[in-house]
Amino acid sequence: MATANTALLLMDLQPAILAGMPNDKLAELLDRVNKAANAARAHQIPVIYVALSFRPGTPEVSSNNQFFDAARSRFDNPDFANIHPDVAPQTGDIIVYKKRFSAFTGSDLDVVLRGLNVKHLVLAGVSTSGVVLSTTREAADKDLQLTILADGCFDADEETHRVLLTKVFPRQAGMKTIDEWCEGLD
């Protein structure tokens, strides 16, 4: 597998977002994500973390946005944007801060990708129906090649997760497990 012009996007791996996951599934997810991140670093593939973050007082949150307005009090916390310590960025990794579901909305991700000459995004994150779906759609509209690491994603709604991974995403992205992707790098 060609790794030139590829970046690994690890999205919304923040303790406040992951708090709803069962502990056993969380530990497994974080282990798999670490495997992907370490493999990417070993093959000089940029690792880009995407985190949801707002200014104090959340002025970026509109009362017209039903989801974000309802969660406003959760976001107004200086620690909200922290990445889970079990998958913490390492030296050389990039962190991008976004303002909505898509990794592109309110962030400088597009500028970073152009600066790195990235044409292929490999995606993992929580939740499948939030950041993964929104980022996949927007990245596809930007004509980026996409791979979704199916076992690097989680959604609290198992049926929604299944439908997205088996019916929706394969129309716009290659689907791989983290093991398959890592093995393809060698």
Automatic annotation (TrEMBL):
Gene3D superfamilies: Isochorismatase-like. One of its GO terms (molecular function) is isochorismatase activity. It holds the Pfam family Isochorismatase. The lineage of its organism: Bacteria, Pseudomonadati, Bacteroidota, Sphingobacteriia, Sphingobacteriales. This is Cysteine hydrolase. The keyword Lipoprotein does not apply. It comes from the Bacteria. The keyword Metal-binding does not apply. Keywords: Hydrolase. Residues 6-176 form the Isochorismatase-like domain. InterPro entries: Isochorismatase (IPR016291), Isochorismatase-like_dom (IPR000868), Isochorismatase-like_hydrls (IPR050272), Isochorismatase-like_sf (IPR036380).
